[in-house]
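[job 0412] stage=complex_fold ligand=fe (ii) ion status=START
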Amino acid sequence: MTVVADESLRTDTSPAPDKRLSRRQFLRRAAMCGLLPFSTAAYATEIEPFWLHSHDVEIPIANLPAEFDGFRILHVTDLHAGPIVPIGYLERAIERVNAIDADLVLVTGDLVTHDMDWVQPICSLLAKINKRTYVSLGNHDYSELSPVLGQPFVASAIEQALMLTHCTLLRNSAASIERNDKRLWIVGLEDYYTPLYKPAEAFASFKADGPMIVMSHNPDTIDDLTPYHPALVMSGHTHGGQVRLPFIGAPILPIQTNYDQGLFDVKGTQLFVSRGVGYLKRIRLNCRPELPRLILKRA
Ligand SMILES: [Fe+2]
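[job 0412] stage=complex_fold status=DONE, emitting structure tokens
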């Protein structure tokens, strides 16, 4: 069938718009396309690494005493004080911590990046936190000479420095918080990559007569921990991958499991993995640093 255009139906007699680009438009668009990689790089290195995200995450906990329903824990991790992360940024992060209402602050490791020179500055900064604070160590908080073997030179310096503050460092040990004779237990583990990591020792050091919250820097530890039935495990270490791509997620992660960021239910234990505050390489893309506030709720 042949279709013949009926010119009598055409009411708009103006000439069809010229859809070709003018030279000026072409040059402008080419310049924008050319600048895109540079503007993305500038954003990923100058803006997002310092764009802290504060947000609430509700954590359902079975058998949570009513006294702790709504208990708020501010999760701080992976500060990485050192020559790469500006101390001014970390000072602003601690100011943010102090401005957020919470019942407790838990710092889950990587205070420094193996660097003894930064132990005192970061511990002095943690001393400014205006809330009850417990700290555990991460893989970068041990000796710069042999972090994998866990030589504890830096860790010992952190321990000594924190003893002069209100912050309590938990090394395979536990502390409790009491409300009306009900207890919430906070357990701090040594880092998974060190021979000091001994969860059995930590869980044997107290009698768990209430829900347990475990600070364990590396989320790969979760399978070691679920047999002890903690209510919640709080980790960092991954930094969320620092760069996350659409449909792919983080191309590079320092873990064997898939627990890269956020909240997971692992055999009835809640695992929260924070993207952290600092970084190793100064780049973050689709992976903002964060200060999550975990709110415990009766399940
Ligand atoms: Fe880290």
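The pocket of fe (ii) ion is lined by residues 78, 80, 110, 138, 140, 237, 239 (CB under 6 Å).
[job 0412] exit 0
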